[in-house]
Amino acid sequence: MRRFMLSMAFAGALSCVPVAGFTAENVYAAAATAAGQTSHKLAGARPFGLGVIIGEPTGISGKYWLSPGAAIDFATAWSFSGDADFHVHADYLFHVNTARQVGRAPIHFFYGAGARFKTTSDQRLGLRIPVGLEFIPRGAPMEIFAELAPILDFIPDTTLRMNIGVGVRYFF
Is the pLDDT of residue 19 over 80? Predict the structure, then answer.
């Protein structure tokens, strides 16, 4: 358990290290162009966002943009299904600009894969496949998102579960 938690912390810290040639300004300028936006993908080149997710699970959610169409998201949360348990997940996400808009701001579709660890009486580890939509209001350093994530637990046994949530993140 301790080794797993240290590995997750190391992987999370490593994901925040900038990749050579990718400054926040370059990433977001390219993202704005790819997404059909003017000059403010996430309102001013801010690669890291932190906020809340409400649903199953409920807690703190974060996101770090790696490139114009890829990001890592994570949550440290509390699961209220069945027994109340601590939940941690991290996902690699791909983003697609849809033709839909709210006002003049686009709605993005995202999908990806990641891992989920949940403390219960028998410690669960599984594969997450999140899909969802995000809305990035023009001129605001935030995003509003909704996601659905089937989970295939493979430790301690094979079980199919589901996460669903909505949230908001502020980028700084």
Answer: no
